[in-house]
What we know:
It is a single chain. The chain has a domain at 10-38 and 49-92 and 208-257: Rossmann fold, CATH 3.40.50.300. It contains 9 helices and 10 strands. The protein has helices at residues 53-60, 83-91, 108-119, 125-138, 154-166, 184-201, 212-218, 236-240, 248-255; strands at 9-24, 27-39, 42-46, 68-73, 76-77, 93-96, 172-176, 204-208, 221-226, 229-234. The model has no long low-confidence stretch (mean pLDDT 92).
Amino acid sequence: MEKAKVEIDYTNEVIRIRGLKKSFEDFAVLRGIDLDLYQGENLVVLGRSGTGKSVLIKLISGLLTPDHGTIEVLGQEVTNITDKALQELRIRIGFSFQNSALYDSMTVRKNLEFPLVRNRKGISRKDIDLAVETVLDAVGLSQTINQMPSELSGGQRKRIGIARTLILNPEIMLYDEPTAGLDPITCIEINDLINEVQQRYKTSSIIITHDLTCAKATGDRIAMLLDGKFERAGTFDEVFDTDDPRVKPFFDYNFIR
Ligand SMILES: Nc1ncnc2c1ncn2[C@@H]1O[C@H](COP(=O)(O)OP(=O)(O)OP(=O)(O)O)[C@@H](O)[C@H]1O
Ligand SMILES: [Mg+2]
């Protein structure tokens, strides 16, 4: 599906990263990152394995602390925030994990209810049911409500994982390799879902991927992590209009040039 036009507010940075550095022992993973995510935008982050993409997401969500630099998320500096404020901030961010992270012993319904019951104290049964039905409809899987995760396909599990995140109406979505391990047709469905979420929930998203079809289909802007920095950023065509040997093989492999 062709990506529909979205409204992006380039005056409103929901994430603003400056001079971010992170090392483990003496291995410098992130070496001075500047990155903005604008309100309403899908930003794709590309990079080889081990370049620090997941580390970046962990820094944004306060799971890791940087060595240098600032990370502002929804107006708050996550490197300088109380535990309580960080917890409240995290509720406003949705994570889509590579393994979908569903609870195997719970039905789809219970999986979806879980974040609501935990984070919206006092919510009524009726509102819970309505919220579950709404997000299941949004990801096109209403019929799976009473199934167990083990009865779902990989693509369905991914959708339910995304639905479970959407149930709290996140302002920011962080997708860590949303299409990894899926067949090409299911990948296209997930790409479309990411775009539908952007439209319907007005989210701003970071999408980490190696899948250039996903990058092209979902990204309003692409940033490529090279040697610990975002050296190339722009539209898909701008980023890949280069002979840089660190960039070109990515394109050639994905599109069999
Ligand atoms: N908690 C940690 N302690 C030590 N080293 C770490 C830690 N977390 C990540 N690293 C190292 O940081 C580097 C970047 O890891 P990261 O998981 O961010 O890579 P990635 O870009 O997400 O890769 P992939 O595409 O394979 O998921 C790796 O070399 C990894 O070993
Ligand atoms: Mg990773």
